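Page 47, continued from p. 46.
Same chain as before, 251 aa.
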Amino acid sequence: MKKILAITLGLLVGLSTFSYAAPKVVEAYLQNDFLIKVNGEFKYHPEGLKPLVYQNRTYLPASYIAQLLGANTTFDSATKTVSITSEELNNLDKTKLEEYENKIKELENEIKILKESNSSNSGYTKMPVRVTQDGYKLTLEGLSIRDDGNDGRLYFTLENEDADTGIKIDAMSTTIETNEQKYTASSQFQENIDLNLFKWIRRDEELKSYIPFSDLPDEDKDIKEMTVTIVMEINETYPKTEKLVFKVIND
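Result:
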């Protein structure tokens, strides 16, 4: 450690008071092995700039400390005043901030529109619509009806993702409620039945099929908003049932 004589100036951090009195000669030391840490990150002082130790206090130039903290310094020689000013957001940061604020407003408007749309449809959702629970996924894909109403088909996809005990739709218990009428799945016409409906779906298997109806309105355009209730069977060995209710729009 090298012993030197130093003159304290207004540019040094650590002065507790400010005076216009004549400079005073003091005894201080340059400390070569001090490290500087800001917010947990080490900062190494530039070549030729070493901390100054005086009366067990450490001093560094105000401009250097301000720079480490993201601020600016100015010195008024006439009044011997050091001014430290925090930096404002630069123009690029302000532009990004404005972009984020605009995107947030756009998203808020979209959410508002979606809420109003759902409200106007009384909670009904367009198909396809999906529900996931108990290790399986059921998706209602759509409804088709032949002109005479004798061949109605509710298409679905059933995926067994993680149900080791097997799953199955109790297809003939399916109902459609619309226009204050309730219709139940029907096997009246054998040609309308997919025998895969009665199979247990094992883990990692998938079934794409349809549930038959024989007494729906003549045209599917007569059905707009409808409530579909499907009964699921869980566990082939010890079966239990659960009902899934879908409020959908036939579009």
